[in-house]
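Agenda item 2: EPU complex prediction
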Amino acid sequence: MDALLIEGPSKLSGKVEVSGSKNSALPLLFASILFDGKVTFENIPRLWDIETTLKLLELMGCRTEWEKEVGRVSVFPEVKTKVAPYDQVKKMRAGILALGPLVAKYGEAKVSLPGGCAIGARPVNYHIEALRKLGVRVEVEEGYIHASVKDKLVGTEILFPEVTVTGTENLLYVGVMAEGTTVLQNSACEPEVVALGEFLKSCGANISGLGTPTITIEGGGLKLPSQPVQIPPDRIEAGTWISISLATRSPLEINHCDASKMTSVLAAFRQMGAKIEELNQGTTLKVTPAEIYHPLHIETAPYPGFPTDMQAQILTLLCLAQGRSTVVESIFENRFMHVAELRRLGAQIEVNGNVATVEGPVEFQGAPIMATDLRASACLVLAGLISKGSTRVSRLYHLDRGYQRLDEKLRRLGAKITRVAE
Ligand code: EPU
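Presented output:
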């Protein structure tokens, strides 16, 4: 495993390009299982989670080609084994996205239960219960979900007890291949869900209500996509760059964004005092930091609320604000693992249940710290950049799962950051 050595405090300048969205690329890649011929994807980010997804597809019998430098992936979906084994799914919980496409296309699947992770228990019971309602026999045995279609997939109405992103995605795959109408109530409105739905629509699916809590799908199958599938920009990476710009007090130009998908995040940073200009139809964000930042009260929520995937980054930035901020984590029960590490650098944060109270402003001093999950690692890199002296961020594996070469991009902007083997 690698570590990052950061010499701070850093002053950055220049322009940075946002990569394709991880959480959009994963469900779109799994969608290739639904087809009988080659599907090509463009703007695929270079990440470990993409490696894991392609490995999973290969284990099923698919052929894949990845032109890493140009970000193009082709999948030849020749599925022979309808199994997503534990060894891969344990590396990436999004392996559960194999379940819907395998059931939809082949009527059977054996997918490892993802298990918990650092940010919470993360069960998949809503996926399973919804599949059962569509006519799928589902047994959970020896750590695997065994699914088989009893007779045929028949559309019905599903009410998700809570908003679930990958749960909605799994049901989209199944709904388009089922007979009749499937209505998904309380479905996720995240842009990544919309991108998957729009792709399926471009292949002939009849889906309405994308981006709203009620999605209606008329089953009827799919035709092969006629063009490469474009992965949209990563709104969480873009938000991470804004927090880096503001925390290091370095004006940055962030390119290849979609500001229209970042309303709650932009509003929060502006409320703190940042100036963020949206240029070129919102594809470029010009960020001007402020001298003084105002404290905030933030609650994470499903889209269009403030994303849980930006909680760690804004929490770190709020350590620089004048006064007391509160951050409520409403999605995952254990997503404050980064707080203990931030405190090692000098942060004054108290956690009570799902509420973190931040006192600022503080000055960070470098120290060895350890990444616990993907977004936590981004916030620890951010903390290292604003710390005086040396910070060593260990267990970098998490960062590489979800950010394309963050350290290289930072180095090009002027950060003193080195990758070392541990
Ligand atoms: N939940 C259940 N049962 C289920 C499904 C969800 O209890 O069957 C609970 C979860 O435990 C959680 C809440 O419902 O408390 C929402 O979870 P959701 O299912 O929406 O999360 P997910 O689909 O597993 C995706 C992203 C996460 C992101 C969340 C929330 C992907 C591949 N992952 O996870 O991204 O945090 O939605 O927006 O799309 C990340 O990129 O770092 C990341 C963790």
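Discussion summary: The longest helix spans residues 165-177.
Owner for follow-up: CH.
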